[in-house]
Amino acid sequence: MKHRLEYCGVRILPASARVLPGPFVRSLGTFIGLASYTLDRRHRRIAERNLAVAFPIRSVRERRTIVRGAFMHFGQLLFELLKFSTLSNEELMTRVEFEGDERVRLAYAHGNGVLFVTGHFGFWELHAIVHALQFEPIGVVARALDNPYVNDLLERIRQRTGTFVLYRQGTIRRVLRTLEFGHGVAVLIAQHIQSRDAIFVDFFERPAATTSAVAALALRTGARVIPVFALPLGGGRYRMIYEHAVEPPDRDTDEAVREFTQRCTDVLEMYVRRHPELWLWMHRRWREGESEPGFGLRDSGIV
Q1: Long-range pairs of 41-47 with CB within 8 A, sequence gap ≥ 24
Q2: 25, 79 contact by CB (below 8 A)
Q3: Range with the poorest average pLDDT among 103-117, 130-144, 286-300
Q4: Which of 76, 96, 224, 267 is the Cys-Cys partner for 107 at CB 3.0 to 4.6 Å?
Q5: In whole angstroms, how far apart are CA 281 and each of 133, 224, 236?
């Protein structure tokens, strides 16, 4: 019953986003973000502690401004995603521009598939929608939401342009199959995990448990690895940036895998440093003794 009530509440939002003008939708998202900043003291404190670790020389006032901006951003992300779900494909493409198209096309032309890596940064959910229109549909590795009704709604939004969701439990075979057919898979790499495939790399000069699955997949399939970021341009427009491909490990050793994962993480950190208000500071990225579902080849029993 609780899940159904939550779904009924969330289901109203896309209908509202359809009829409301874009500036009002973005303002509503900003308001929800500010309300969350005010009311959600637990996650606000987590974000403030994370900022103190990442930017120790910034003043408390500066860090609080970033935290407030991050809450506002994620409120805007939610409502922009709902607004995007109501637009036609033609309308979507007028709202975005692409940088690094040639890198993507060259990576696809190689024939071994492409791994697109990013984090909970910027407007990553919008990227998955418009990538299919500019290039071709991709698989998105995701964790199912606890509420199955809300998860179904989010899945329909994600898949409306052909993108398909690969849920973490038991997905490795589908990921391998997608890459072997020369297609793309998007993976979020910057969440704390604790599994046999977790390795520690530096993130803001502090060790962070990170998945080694991207390196393992690149080694196994020869897939190209391209970091991707979706940045706001203002006025409801966005830029999808495809960075230079990260050179894959040249050998299957622990050190080579760690070095490769570090390079991927370094690209993400560079963008977070440039736009800290677009990062999910409310997630406990640096922690010990706790676990979240991993995404690794060894966990799947394949290797």
Answers
A1: 43/282, 44/71, 44/282, 46/281, 46/282, 46/283, 46/284, 47/71, 47/281, 47/282
A2: yes
A3: 286-300
A4: 224
A5: 30, 29, 23
